[in-house]
Design goal:
51% strand; homodimer; mainly beta
Amino acid sequence: MSTLASRFDTNPILRPSEVKPSRPDMKIECLLNPGAFRYQNRIGLLLRVAERPVQEDGWVSVPIVDPTSEGGLRIFRCRADDPKLDFSDARVFTYDGKQYLTTLSHLRLAWSTDGRHFVADDKPTLTGQNALQSFGLEDSRVAFIDGRYYLTYTEVSEAGVGVGMTSTADWMQFHHHGMIIPPHNKDCALFEERIDGHYYALHRPSGVGLGGNFIWTARSPDLLHWGDHRCIARTRRNAWDSGRVGAGASPIKTSAGWLAIYHGADDKPRYSLGLLLLDLKDPTKVIARSTKPIMEPEAAYELTGFFGNVVFTNGHVIDGDTVTVYYGASDEVICGATLSIQTLLATLA
Amino acid sequence: MSTLASRFDTNPILRPSEVKPSRPDMKIECLLNPGAFRYQNRIGLLLRVAERPVQEDGWVSVPIVDPTSEGGLRIFRCRADDPKLDFSDARVFTYDGKQYLTTLSHLRLAWSTDGRHFVADDKPTLTGQNALQSFGLEDSRVAFIDGRYYLTYTEVSEAGVGVGMTSTADWMQFHHHGMIIPPHNKDCALFEERIDGHYYALHRPSGVGLGGNFIWTARSPDLLHWGDHRCIARTRRNAWDSGRVGAGASPIKTSAGWLAIYHGADDKPRYSLGLLLLDLKDPTKVIARSTKPIMEPEAAYELTGFFGNVVFTNGHVIDGDTVTVYYGASDEVICGATLSIQTLLATLA
């Protein structure tokens, strides 16, 4: 196994069976891709919890956010042999030409005092609430900026897939800022300080025809409104990141530049992690990029699961030279690993 | 023929043969979808001019913006029988797995004193200049805000298709504001005044999987940075706008609401025009929407051409109750028509 990343010997640190479903008629299928942060001497993870209704024989059912239904959730249900049903993709469910997701994701806090043992809250922290979130919230980054936490996550609905933002100072009261980057977009990581007076973000539009799943930067005066979009990292042919690339958590400030851990997938897709080093004064300039992954699916729990061959991170915490990366393995369980920032920088030299 | 729109009896008012190519080795294939505005007692159109290199027997060649080449343009050329060439779509050209456009578009001014007879400038007004514009500029809207013209157009490159913005006060000096809305996005129309202190735009993201070609709103403090994206109009099944919808020029302020002319295409695709009426104080609220088109391809020049069955507008001027719509017909020629705003509003009652 690669020696750059020291995986926790307690991996996986959280499994679906260790978290309570949001309702008795729901079952947690996967825990995915947590945001990570420090708060009051604890480390918090903001998990993505993917649930589906407990299935009955002969029927299939999927959950949809619906503010007009009891509990804000409606279950769409049809006979498994209904000719209008197309179930050819396990993640998506097509009925009478209309698409649904098979699982509904919400965001849930889990807390730890040592960064290794986490206990998840019993209830969801953030759930889909409006028409742009009817298929849920996914893969939240957590950035700490000017004394406030900014959560950027994927909002999913039949209108499209874009980046929503919510902020909080105390993890009790939340303020929703709407969709800050329109479809099709994911993987939005905020820089945790202003650069030359501007806020910056990494984000990942997807092309239709021209373009692809590339990493872009954007600039903002206020974190709410974004412009000056630029493409800084494309996929690379015949490489481990040939199919798609997307930012991880907030870039890490080092004397050499902003160090951004990103995920890349090949055409299989097999998801690995790599690095971008961005200019300290102008993060739209790429100084260096990993030729080889810094971490790839190798452990048993990374090779098989709900969707195997995946290591995917959008959360980390820093302690001196050590970055502790929290990551989703095989789209099913939560894991951790530590890496040395200086050693990572050395791989780019 | 439908009676809502009075087509100019001089249509088409501009044809490719009446405009000078940007270089002697280029040929204009199509004139498309102009922005329209008033300036110093004249009416200006900002045409989209689509050119390709004069083709030689046995070869195919496409133009690419390249600041390092002479004249800022590079011609990519290969044998017509090269096995790496895939020419199955007339608009796109795939060589060795890489996509190019068959034509390169720039934006060019044309001027008129009567709004009916236009003379195009001899040289391009705005051409692709950077990596996000390497496949050109398309379909510019022109909004007049606070004494300045704001041009929003599609920037095309292999990085993706997004919305760029340039402003000018005098049509001589231009200031480029970068890509204001990231891929995949087109059809961005600015509202020409602030509403409750905010600038607003209509825009058209395209979905990958979930979502579609729908009309969205966005809000901005400064026209440069955009947020609070909301989906306000989707395609409608089995209707004339089942395949895609997108905004035309700036919405027209009326006492009944903001009247937005939009294009819709069905699955063929056949492009027609319809209306959205938006709340004056909150343009994210749709008051009414056309059930039938207000204008559809009917005249000979709208039925056949480079790409037939298209009426597409992103430019108009207002004079009292009359809106003069300038439009692209069959992706080849420029036409005009007048419509009564009160009569249009009556179709929504």
